[in-house]
Amino acid sequence: MSAPLDSSKLTVTRTTTPSQPKPNDQLVFGQTFTDHMLTVEWTEEKGWANPEIKPYAPLSLDPATIVFHYAFELFEGMKAYRTEDNKITMFRPDMNMKRMNKSAARICLPKFDEEELLKLIGTLIEQDKHLIPVGQGYSLYIRPTMIGTSVGLGVSTPDKALLYVICSPVGPYYKTGFKAVKLEATDYATRAWPGGVGDKKLGANYAPCVLPQLQAAERGYQQNLWLFGPEHNITEVGTMNAFFVFQNLATGKKELVTAPLDGTILEGVTRDSILNLARERLDSNEWDINERYCTITEVAERSKNGELVEAFGSGTAAIVSPIKEIGWKGESINVPLLPGEQSGALTKQIAAWIGDIQYGRQEHKGWSRVVADLK
Amino acid sequence: MSAPLDSSKLTVTRTTTPSQPKPNDQLVFGQTFTDHMLTVEWTEEKGWANPEIKPYAPLSLDPATIVFHYAFELFEGMKAYRTEDNKITMFRPDMNMKRMNKSAARICLPKFDEEELLKLIGTLIEQDKHLIPVGQGYSLYIRPTMIGTSVGLGVSTPDKALLYVICSPVGPYYKTGFKAVKLEATDYATRAWPGGVGDKKLGANYAPCVLPQLQAAERGYQQNLWLFGPEHNITEVGTMNAFFVFQNLATGKKELVTAPLDGTILEGVTRDSILNLARERLDSNEWDINERYCTITEVAERSKNGELVEAFGSGTAAIVSPIKEIGWKGESINVPLLPGEQSGALTKQIAAWIGDIQYGRQEHKGWSRVVADLK
User: Fold this and answer.
1) Nearest residue to B290 via CA among B252, B245, B330
2) Which one of B107, B143, B206 has the shortest CB-CB distance to A208?
3) 3 state SS for B71-96
4) pLDDT tens-digit map of B175-201
5) Are residues B214 and B89 both part of a single domain?
6) Per the confidence metrics, is the pTM higher than 0.90?
7) What spans are recorded as compositionally biased (Polar residues) (chains A, B) (predicted)?
8) CA distance A244 to A136
9) CA of A63 to nearest chain B CA: how many angstroms apart?
10) CATH number of residue B254's parent domain
């Protein structure tokens, strides 16, 4: 009988040289880490070993470890927020835990008890509470990771794994409010395919996208907008899901559109939250909220007709990231912005809705969950 | 000006505790390693550092290193053979070096001078010459590997990398001659796609294939035969390229078929060698040698008509691996074998041709290259 992940078996070894928090304006995404990390080893024979919190330190791995050769690796991206009454909250962390288990199952890495890992993450955060930045837009980025640690060059199911969690204090993605981005609609490389793993948060989905990103950057675009198939369906941005707002000029009705979860699209927590809030809060006489295929051709045509109203990406890092321009076949599709601003009205509204929930200013269906109480 | 990879700058630190060779019958593929490894660090700023050969030892890496999160990793598989006159030869190693550079370019890892790395590999092999097993079918499996070692959670071009090479003494893939395998034709998962990275030797191509392999194994098949597209084109096996032999019963003419290199197929060195040898040595009045799309439906139909003569996989590990059965839609496509044997006639012939070149019994276009002289 292999042992389950058990937070009650945690051992904590604290650093003897705690670090000082950096000033908020020196925080760079994913570059500074807190003093402690969580590690839990797993073997097929014995299951999950006792969890350990210990000083942040290098991993020591045999050069024949399968994570280096066959990409047995997955991760999650989550944030913890410090509220005004000194609680630490996370935004829908159950969604990340569920997705992490789905990623693990897809590459034969071990599943774990989601509530137990959340408890352990709460305890990890408490160790470094003085390093969690305070203020609107500031948070602790949390990176749960799982790697296959079997040693040997045969390609087969991992019989050893390491789950670890590291944390990075981060600031707002855009220091001075929104900064709308330019995307290049990309059909010269393909991010994901039906029957593949594009809907899972696996390392394998990322390295292959960096060369096209570099190529797009050379033409002045920050990111790729990945297209799929002969119809050039818009899928996602790779680090973000993609949303479009159209207005039918004949009827006046508006539509919020994002790609359906067909196995090629990452199941974004922010994506799901936006769809939920939009369905609850936007007037259904004025709005349709649709998960449907939308081609780049449709976006280009409706832009020409004046029916393209807004576009934005969604993800844990930036919450919503307004899009101001999409390059496609050498032409520019320009996306309207509010006069003198870097986003459209709905983009701004959604960012405010989610920010209020994340920072505990508004309760919404238990989405903001207390994982540690610093009092 | 960033420094090129330079074998003249090599430093060698030898182990103080050299190991004894294992008996040939205890060698398991990729489980035992030699005493030394080659490592070369690279930074964007300075280029390639001085190469080092040192005792085989764990890698120590920050838990935020990009190889753990975004699959910045690639590898090669090569073999070194000990000839009767005490030379160490490798089989077309220039092909592996070229492919390794193509893999590196695809995920923005650094390119290197191919001849320099081959020289370094030769010197590495010399350190552990007593561990290279002797005998037909025995060899030293060589695993050049490159990983991205930048530290940080942003998804971008690596500015640090580590190239390393480890070696494993291995025996014949099948201890007692051939053992024909059963494959499951797989359309419920997709290994590679146009615009993806299926033709590169990236870690990213491997972990996603292990779950389907497990599912096929539960139904009694050793490997997946990956299909692609609505026509169910046969692509490859994931660890091997796939070949089929048909005979047109009306004309008597035979055909050797494998999938064309369309970007979804690994550019196998053994695949290329088989095509070369077949074109040179098979009588063109009797044989057509074709790189063309071939569907599983064609294989099933020609099996029923008695036109399917042989099928085999090709790769560095087994050279050729005869196929005896392919499962497809709940039915079995049976592949003929020679009476009382585990392969067809051409499969056996090709294995002999390549074996003679690899072990230096026959010279062929410089394919067998001396990389170290132990005299």
Assistant:
1) B245
2) B107
3) CCEEECCEEEEECCCCEEEEECHHHH
4) 667 899 999 999 999 999 999 999 999
5) no
6) yes
7) 8-26
8) 26
9) 6
10) 3.20.10.10
